[in-house]
């Protein structure tokens, strides 16, 4: 990947971001790639010289900085950090980097916790992220499959970049660092998930799903002439029509707001080479 510097940031910062130490080693695929879109992985491999601006990588860089700082955690009998684990399955090598495994003492029992650090938004904690479930369960499966001691629970340790103290309470996180418990799958379920994902990446190679494109669903807005914002939003056309029939006025009308593929439009670094995205743009 070639980095641009459209905002004339200091060259030393550009150099630091360019000097990314991450590698998946000799693996065919990493866990983060496995749980993501096969099409995106393929296009990234096909276009290694694609451009990205250094300003768009600031949060990824910040996340790496947090990982570096947390390497201060001393290893002991009950604490392991930065564990790289690989296994061979269906003739492919899968690799994952586990941030932290530690022992947590709770009343009566002691638990072995596998944890991952995330620099993320408050909304990720409030609404949840299904990919966290998939990632940590595959890490646990890798760890135990390769002889690691049994894991009792999974946990995301979040660092919330947009946290506001004035909003703390109720369902809003009470601190800028918080933990999220992840439900554990059984080992057989996880292995089947891994095999299915490997098939998608190396055999089926399907188009991106709505979930992989971060699709926002269509909505229908009850509008009023002369007003930019909706009087009310509805998830279906029928609901909007029923509302219009019940309390609509002569200056009201219904506006269809097509769903938007947020990742494709705003965040995907290979969308310019994606035929699926091109087709979608043409249809719109």
Strand and helix layout:
Blueprint: E1 2-4, H1 11-18, E2 29-30, H2 31-34, H3 38-46, E3 51-53, H4 58-69, E4 79-89, E5 92-105, E6 110-120, H5 122-127, H6 130-145, E7 153-160, E8 177-182, H7 187-204, E9 215-216, E10 219-224, E11 232-234, H8 237-247, E12 252-257, E13 260-261, H9 262-267, H10 275-283
Parallel strand pairs: 1-3, 2-5, 6-7
Antiparallel strand pairs: 4-5, 5-6, 7-8, 9-13, 10-11, 10-12
Record keyword descriptors for this entry.
six-stranded mixed beta sheet; 13 strands; alpha/beta; 2 domains; three-stranded antiparallel beta sheet; Lambda Exonuclease, Chain A; 284 residues; single chain; globular; 10 helices
Number of strands: 13
Largest sheet: 6 strands, mixed
CATH class of the largest domain: Alpha Beta
* Helix/strand/pairing category: alpha/beta
- CATH topology description of the largest domain: Lambda Exonuclease, Chain A
- Give me the CATH architecture of the largest domain, please: Alpha-Beta Complex
- Rg result: 23 Å
Overall mean pLDDT stands at 91
Domain count, please report it: 2
Chain oligomer state? single chain
Low-confidence stretches: none
Span from first to last CA?
A: 30 Å
What series of H and E elements makes up the topology? EHEHHEHEEEHHEEHEEEHEEHH
Percent range of helical residues: 25-40%
Describe it.
By secondary structure, the protein is α/β, with parallel strands linked by helices. It has two domains: 2-204, Lambda Exonuclease, Chain A (Alpha-Beta Complex); 215-283, no CATH class. It is 35% helix and 27% strand. A hairpin with a 2-residue loop joins strand 4 and strand 5. The protein starts with a strand and ends with a helix. The mean pLDDT is 91.
């Amino acid at each position: 990947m070639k980095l641009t510097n459209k905002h004339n940031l200091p060259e030393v910062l550009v150099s630091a971001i360019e000097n990314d130490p991450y590698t998946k080693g000799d693996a065919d695929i990493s866990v983060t790639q496995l749980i993501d879109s096969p099409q995106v992985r393929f296009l990234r491999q096909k276009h290694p010289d694609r451009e990205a601006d250094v300003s768009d990588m600031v949060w990824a860089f910040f996340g790496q900085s947090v990982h570096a700082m947390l390497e201060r955690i001393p290893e002991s009998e009950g604490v392991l950090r930065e564990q790289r684990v690989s296994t061979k399955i269906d003739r492919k090598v899968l690799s994952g980097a586990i941030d932290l495994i530690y022992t947590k003492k709770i009343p009566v029992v002691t638990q072995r916790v596998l944890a991952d650090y995330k620099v993320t938004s408050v909304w990720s904690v409030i609404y949840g992220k299904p990919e966290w479930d998939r990632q940590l369960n595959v890490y646990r499966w890798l760890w135990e499959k390769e002889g690691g001691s049994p894991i009792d629970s999974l946990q995301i340790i979040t660092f919330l970049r947009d946290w506001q103290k004035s909003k703390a309470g109720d369902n809003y996180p009470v601190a800028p660092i918080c933990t999220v418990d992840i439900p554990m799958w059984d080992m057989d379920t996880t292995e089947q998930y891994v095999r299915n994902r490997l098939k998608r990446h190396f055999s089926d190679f399907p188009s991106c799903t709505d979930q992989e494109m971060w699709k926002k669903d269509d909505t229908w807005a009850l509008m009023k002439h002369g007003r930019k914002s909706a009087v009310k939003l509805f998830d279906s056309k029928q609901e909007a029509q029923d509302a219009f029939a019940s309390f609509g006025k002569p200056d009201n009308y219904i506006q269809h707001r097509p769903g938007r593929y947020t990742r494709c439009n705003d965040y995907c670094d290979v969308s310019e080479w994606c035929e699926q995205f091109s087709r979608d743009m043409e249809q719109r």
